[in-house]
Amino acid sequence: MIRFAVIYCRVSSARQVKEGHGLSSQETRCREYAKHKNYDVIETFCDEGVSGGMIERPGMQAMLSFLKKQKDDGPIAVLIDDISRLARGLEAHLDLRSEIAEAGGKLESPSIEFGEDSDSILVENLLASVSQHQRQKNAEQVKNRMRARLMNGYWTGKSPYGYCFQRVSKHGKLLVRNEPIASIVQEALEGYACGRLQTRPEVKYFLESHKLFPRGSDGKVHYQRVDDMLNNPLYAGYIHFPRWGITYQVGQHEPLIRYETWQLIQARLNDQAKTRARVDVVGDFPLRGFLTCACCGQSMTACWSKGEHKLYPYYFCFCKECSSYKKSIRRDVIEQAFDRLLSSLCPSEDMFQMVVQMLRDIWDNREETIERDKLIVQKECAEAEKKIEQLTDRVLQTDSPSLVRTYEEQIKKLEIERAKLVEKKRSFSMTRLDFNQTFRTSLEFFRNPRKLWVSNHIEDKKLVLKLVFTHPLEYSRESGFRTPLTSSPFRLLSLFSGEKEVLVEKNGQVSTKAVLDELYRWCMIIEDQKLISRAYQKSKLQ
Hints:
Blueprint: E1 4-11, H1 14-19, H2 22-36, E2 40-48, H3 58-69, E3 76-79, H4 83-86, H5 90-102, E4 105-108, H6 118-151, E5 163-168, E6 172-177, H7 181-194, H8 200-208, H9 223-231, E7 238-241, E8 246-250, H10 259-271, E9 291-293, E10 300-306, E11 311-317, E12 329-330, H11 331-344, H12 349-367, H13 370-397, H14 401-429, H15 435-447, H16 450-453, H17 458-468, E13 473-476, E14 480-481, H18 488-495, H19 512-529, H20 533-536
Parallel strand pairs: 1-2, 1-3, 3-4, 9-13
Antiparallel strand pairs: 5-6, 7-8, 10-11, 11-12, 13-14
Helix pairs in contact: 7-8, 7-10, 12-19, 13-14, 15-19, 18-19
């Protein structure tokens, strides 16, 4: 005769634990049943947020261990509210039923009578099969609803860093910017796209420099998190979930970066090998790695030297064959010379204003072609949509696996191309700024690149080196910096000075129009990526 009982309760989701009363209601029904049967309930076991398809559950294993210890005292009733609380799969149900019996328990429920005759076993197995079917059907329905949401442009997974879910009228749960993390992520992504942050380690150190950015339990931002951010098209406003056949669907959420910026990131990731992190990437020698010795042509290094009372910073050549081997040069000597070099590249104000006016004329002429470009993009987008539909029909009609793979590859390429065109259409619909608003930052940079160099951010200093010079700088202990090789904007600006103000092609030189077009292109690149707005945010064109 059974005198004692234990209760087993289970809910399958953490939400049911926090918001519902599933566990308590199950326990109440089982206690009511135990009172009716005159059982003394000696223990209750619960599994919170555990799937019914699993056998290895903490609460279930604890109950089986408890039953085995009490086995010598006679059988104990194991009470469950419903057959689905034990398991939601026929195989799992039979395994647990057997383990409970071996541990000395007898399964009972207020909802079903567990018998040993063939009819009772049949009913029990049928109910277990129905429970399994319900679980599988629920999973299918959840998947279908999630897939439909994804196809409509709503992300259904975990919110990425920089976003959070918020209920929005007519949208339901929608990803929205989560400040200030969103701005940190945006600056990191745009910085990597344009080369301001040149490597993954630099992105990592940039994120770690912001105390509000989430990090691991060890207080660091791990490279896996950096890689996830750099590869996530959600930041560009697109839903990509190829496992469910969804590729680059336009999202309903606000993007942090433009799609072209995300493509630049992917291009850099594909072209650039994974770089080992340098411990001195945020050090005190911004010219390290960009200086070469004028005697031997090898890169100069830098270090701190211990003096009698404090440390002193030096640059020096570390090539043993060089006559300047380990002959140190004070950091302030080199960096003051570099500061003068940078100042010498600033154009005169009169010449600068003349170039600004020429670029303004180009801007006015190009504005007239926007409507024509808009129609062309709309036509190309419609053609891409038509081709995707045609290839999709072919996939449904063919039985050849090789043809299906070929069509799917073509569809994938077309969907990526369609995403580019959609992004162009989106840019046409945006409110267009005037010339001053659009080119303010880039022109102020060309007017005075030194302003970015003295901003006291190592990534800004590296950006100056990248944008102003095309090759490392040669430095001589005796004569200082050799003539630098500057990038095309500064070379082109110099062509407008003095007697070279008017350029003609027949003399072997480029035309004024070509020079201005190249300057215009560089301005668009800088402004498009928001490279240096932090240092120049208070500047205004005259």
